Amino acid sequence: MEGAGAAAFGCAFIDGYHSNKQVVKDFEAVKAVSAPDAICVFHDVHNGGLRPGLAAIAAKYPGFSSSLLEGTSSGIAVGTFGAFPSAVVAVLTAFSVPAVARPVLETALSRWSRRRRIYRRRSLTKRLNVLRKLVGLKVRPLAPKGLDGMM
Predict the structure, then answer these.
(1) pLDDT of residue 146
(2) What is the pLDDT of residues 116-137, one digit of tens each?
C-alpha cells in the first residue's frame, strides 16, 4: 500500500462489471491493498454467472478459497486465503441450503431466470418498437408474459 502508516483492508465488497474477466481484475485491485487474511465478499456471483471467475482466482492464487451463500437472492460469495474465521463460518452456515431443499431452490431459480429473460426480451422489444414506429417499420409483437402471466 502507498502512504506512510496506511492500514490494509480487512474486508472488501466487490460489486463491479459482471464478467469473469473483470471479477479477477477487481479482486487483484483489492488484493493489492488488503491484509493477507482479508475477507472478500463478491456480489451477484450466481446471477452474474461469476463462478468461473472465482475458479480463475483460485487457480491463479494458491490458497484462495470461496464459498457461495446459497440462501442469498443474487448468490453472494465470500472468499479468503486460508481458513474462514469462525464468524464467517457462522454466516456461511446460516445461508447454506439443506440438501432436501436444494431441488426446491433450483426450481425457483430456474423459474426466476426464465421470467427475467422474458422481462428483458419484452422490455427490449418495446424500446425497439418505439424506434420502428419512428422510422416507419412494422412493430413486432411482444413475447408472452411469464409462466403464470405475471412478471
Answers:
(1) 56
(2) 788 888 888 899 989 999 999 9
> Which segments of the chain belong to CATH 3.40.50.150?
9-96
H or E segment and range at residue 151: none
Closest CA to 67 of 149, 59, 122, 83: 83
Nearest Cα residue to 125 out of 136, 139, 112 = 139
CB 118 within 8 A of CB 143: yes
3 state DSSP class of 68:
strand
pTM of the complete model: 0.68
Q: Is 26 exposed, middle or buried (0-12, 13-18, 19+ CB in 10 A)?
A: buried
Question: How far is residue 113 from each of residues 84, 127, 142, measured CA to CA in Å?
Answer: 31, 21, 18
Contact 84, 94 (CB under 8 A): no
CA distances from 4 to 7, 34, 137 (A): 9, 15, 64
- Per the structure block, which three cell numbers stand in for 89? 463460518
Domain 9-96 is found in CATH 3.40.50.150: yes
